[in-house]
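Attaching the record inline, Q. Sequence:
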Amino acid sequence: MRYALLVIFLFYSTFANSQQRREDTDFSLFAYNVGFGGITAGIGAIINKPKDTPVHKAFLNGFYQGCFGGMLQYGGKKLAYQIVKRENYWYGWSAKLVHNAGASIVENAAMSRPFGRYWNIDLGPLRFDFVFNTEDDPFRVRVSPMIIYDIIAIGVQSNSSQIDWGKSLKMGTLVFYTNESLYGYKRRQDVVGTAYSKSFIYTSQTNNIYKTNVHELVHLFQYREHLVLSVCASLEVRIGVTYV
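Structure, as predicted:
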């Protein structure tokens, strides 16, 4: 266990120092994504390890895989911003595929499973699971119950909201929009988008529609990453809402 504490200490020391270097924002975000993936996967691997596996071995095995998954998650977020740079929403698919691959690796490691055995991807309200080299079902589709919460919350936030089918198709994520101002739980007048758990809403009154949509998409990626904290991501018990 002392190895785990040492790694955690070194990571947060590095991250704290990098935060002081404003000009090194990309490195800070990279370090956070890699470190978060590694540490959460390592802790999860300890919780779910076989009884005969030493604690330090389980942590390090999960940590290494989690760091790799964290790198992919960071890469997926960077790819998402190509939407703004290229003004092309189809980059949302490449960003989602890379990010979900990273999240799958982190979750797989946190469950102390062999590398590359379980993969999954979220597409709108659905979650697709793929399993290799096991007696379990090789393919499974599940509907996330969180989409019900999303729809109700979006309806409360804006009674004129509609599904943006074009952006939903191009980004692989359920996107809503409204032509009116958004009303949220925060007393702010400049809310131009809100991300929930499986979907987000934006208003056409935003100054930069590409940037707003990408910002909310990245929030959904962050929610996806934090599901590993439940150790078993399929539970999906966290409810989150974030504003621009």
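Confidence is low (pLDDT under 50) at residues 1-10, 18-23, 232-244. The radius of gyration is 19 Å.

More tomorrow.
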